[in-house]
């Protein structure tokens, strides 16, 4: 093997969860401390770098003037959770497409110009310098009283982490907790106290999102899979096609077009991709699909078999109706409808054409009588033609 020419130290700010940008928060809030920590950590290397995603403009602005006088070079470029694979980070660092590759020397990540690379994340560099290596920064969001960043010690359970964010909102019933974003897992409410944040956990990487009854299991999972589809680097056919198919099928589930066989197909795909994907991104992104069915399967399959969205989120399953005993025939709803989907005139009970209705909710916002409601499979008796207010029986 050729002799290594030099060793470089790279502090990486890439690989954030889309919904919990931990590296960004740390770089923006602790720019000076980070630069000082990189100077110390890279003192034995031939050169030191800080890799900052170009989209983090504030971090670039704060860190660059502090780093350059110390001989630390700031490199900007693309970002993706795929960059958690260090070979993919090297590709981004060198201005190439973010894609992982097989590396002979996993200890020094040689391969590009035969340079040995020591790669450490922003949080790890800072925590070592500050002596807080027993803690982790997380972003807690969703149905909690105080969404935001919290710092928790390893060994803390999920229930305690939610308490750090003010606890679950009053009146909310937890449906599930997604830990780790698009590379994470859904956790059942009963497991909050037994789900422990361990060091180097594959799910406690940044994001903790609490889903209550206002969240639709199918629609939320679709959103997460849309992010995974966008983030897949495309190198591995299993991941490239798998993320596309996952998103497509969940989109059909939320639009009422899914087949009864789709849940079994999704589970089989997750098993195959989880076993055969090239990198950890592909192998881990399937866990969202697996655990979505484990934790919220009845609700998701309800979209397919009963054509019902329990949370009232999926517009394809929504029907709006104007209550005959409340409508005053004022016409405000018809004026507010951008699709002209409401028929009526002054003094007459108004009617909604649900084939034309886009379910935007503007009519509900302007109705002072609260006469417009979302109905499920059981619909109230409604007039088939315009009828004067107070005369429909």
UniProtKB/TrEMBL annotation:
It comes from the Bacteria. SUPFAM superfamilies: 4Fe-4S ferredoxins (SSF54862), Nqo1 FMN-binding domain-like (SSF142019), Nqo1 middle domain-like (SSF142984), Nqo1C-terminal domain-like (SSF140490). GO terms for molecular function: 4 iron, 4 sulfur cluster binding; metal ion binding. Keywords: Iron, Iron-sulfur, Metal-binding. Pfam families: Fer4, NADH_4Fe-4S, SLBB. InterPro entries: 4Fe4S_Fe-S-bd, 4Fe4S_Fe_S_CS, Nuo51_FMN-bd_sf, Nuop51_4Fe4S-bd, Nuop51_4Fe4S-bd_sf, Soluble_ligand-bd. The keyword Cell membrane does not apply. Residues 318-347, 348-377 form the 4Fe-4S ferredoxin-type domain. PROSITE patterns: 4FE4S_FER_1, 4FE4S_FER_2. This is 4Fe-4S binding protein. It comes from Candidatus Scybalocola faecigallinarum. The lineage of its organism: Bacteria, Bacillati, Bacillota, Clostridia, Lachnospirales.
């Amino acid at each position: 093997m050729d002799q290594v020419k030099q060793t470089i130290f790279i502090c990486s700010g890439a690989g954030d969860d889309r919904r919990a940008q931990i590296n960004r928060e740390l770089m923006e809030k602790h720019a000076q401390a980070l630069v000082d920590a990189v100077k110390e950590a890279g003192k034995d290397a031939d050169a030191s770098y800080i890799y900052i995603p170009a989209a983090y403009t504030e971090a670039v602005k704060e860190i660059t003037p502090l780093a350059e006088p110390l001989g630390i070079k700031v490199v900007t470029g693309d970002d993706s959770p795929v960059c958690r694979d260090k070979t993919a980070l090297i590709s981004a660092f060198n201005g190439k497409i973010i894609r992982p590759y097989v590396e002979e020397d996993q200890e020094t990540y040689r391969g590009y110009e035969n340079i040995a690379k020591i790669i450490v994340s922003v949080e790890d560099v800072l925590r070592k310098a500050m002596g807080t290596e027993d803690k982790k920064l997380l972003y807690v969001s969703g149905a909690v009283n105080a969404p935001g960043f919290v710092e928790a010690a390893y060994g803390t359970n999920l229930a305690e982490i939610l308490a750090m964010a003010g606890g679950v909102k009053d009146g909310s019933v937890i449906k599930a907790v997604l830990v780790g974003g698009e590379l994470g897992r859904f956790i059942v409410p009963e497991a909050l106290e037994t789900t422990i944040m361990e060091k180097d956990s594959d799910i406690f990487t940044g994001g903790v999102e609490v889903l209550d009854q206002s969240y639709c299991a199918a629609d939320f999972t679709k959103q997460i899979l849309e992010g995974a589809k966008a983030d897949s680097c495309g190198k591995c056919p299993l991941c490239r096609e798998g993320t596309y198919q996952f998103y497509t099928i969940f989109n059909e589930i939320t639009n009422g077009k899914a087949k009864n066989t789709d849940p079994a197909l999704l589970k089989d795909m997750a098993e195959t991709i989880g076993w055969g994907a090239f990198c950890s991104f592909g192998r881990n992104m399937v866990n969202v699909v697996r655990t979505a069915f484990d934790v919220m399967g009845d609700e998701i399959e309800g979209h397919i078999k009963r054509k019902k969205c329990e949370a009232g989120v999926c517009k394809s399953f929504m029907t709006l109706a104007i209550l005959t005993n409340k409508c005053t025939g004022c016409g405000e709803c018809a004026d507010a409808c951008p699709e002209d989907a409401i028929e009526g005139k002054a003094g007459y009970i108004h009617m909604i054409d649900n084939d034309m209705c886009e379910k935007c909710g503007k009519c509900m916002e302007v109705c002072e009588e609260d006469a417009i409601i979302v109905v499920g499979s059981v619909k109230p008796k409604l007039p088939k033609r315009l009828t004067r207010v107070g005369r429909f029986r």
